[in-house]
Amino acid sequence: MAAGLIPLAEAQRRLLALAAPLAGELAPLDQAAGRWIARDVAARRTQPAADLSIMDGYAIRFADMPGPWRVVGESAAGSLPGFAIQAGEAARIFTGAPIPTGADTVLVQEEAAREGDRMALNGEGPPHAGAHIRRKGADFGEGAILLHRGGRASPAAIGLAAAAGHGALPVRRRPRVALISTGDELVPPGAPTSGSQLPSSNAPMLAALIAASVPAEVEDHGIVPDDPDATAAAIAAARHADIIVTTGGASVGDRDFVRPALIAAGAAIDFWRIAVKPGKPLMAGRLGDGIVLGLPGNPVSAYVTARLFLLPLIRHLGGAADPFDRAVAMRLAGPLPATGNRMEFLRGCRAGARARALPVQDSAGLSGLADADLLIVRPAYAPPAHVGDIARILTIA
After folding, report:
1. Is the pLDDT reported for residue 234 higher than 70?
2. Nearest to 302 by CA among 207, 174, 197
3. Considering the entire predicted model, what is its pTM?
4. Fewer CB in 10 Å around end: N or C, the chain?
């Protein structure tokens, strides 16, 4: 490992250690989706609350097979039948309706022949006692823990919570993220450019990445020129955020003012410069109650480090039990050269069931990043890789 560079795993661990998950709050179900559960959630009711029919047909006693039967009533979903089934009796029943007392089986309507209140078997009949019945508590019982702290409120989890009697869920507060873009060369997206000016692409890219991945409240604080006073003012204006994200200006050039401005504002920088390519000039620390994360200015570097650090940090503050994306194994469709002293994240795409690195890996090349649907993870000092070798892959699209 190169001197002074922090390995990825250590940097990620140190970043998350800077702050604990945010406070919990009770959110209505329509506002809880995608957030992380702050405490275990137990069922307030049993599901189903009674034995229910899973078919339209007739509720019978299996001991009375093969019939005939006398139809003595009807059971529909949403109400309890006010009668019991005796020997030789049956009840018309519909899908989702409770099984009358005394019945233990459902005869499907396609195998029943009825005339008035008389009903006979017209087929093979139910194969066993209990056929076509969903038993009380088959899904869950009252008091059972259904959602666990640190799990995500997925659409299915929202449905489960509603079925269990909950109209709201205990979730973590959404992290507040402030984005600050630095550089004299930047102009707002859509504005005309001249000379060496560049449209500011990092903030809209990062805001879109966050919106597509994690629940957070994002504020774009705009473009800050390479000026110490302007940088200090932008940082002061963003101090209410849980995470202040800067892009650019965190290196050691004469016009890189982010790090000294943060230190002047009272920030404690925990680490700076990581053994990752692209993304070496990454910085992290604390400022008051929040975390500052300085991402590189090159767009691809900003994107890759946002996936490796910013998204896991938002998930961690949001209460995720496992905040990191997990790499999967995939065989390579093409050869790869040996790596140097940094872990590399190569933009690539799927070629059938294999992964192929894109030919251009420029850290400012957004066209290649837009074409990529995965990152090929290469350890530092790895030897050349060959077609068919297994590599670790992070999916990004």
Report:
1. yes
2. 207
3. 0.91
4. C
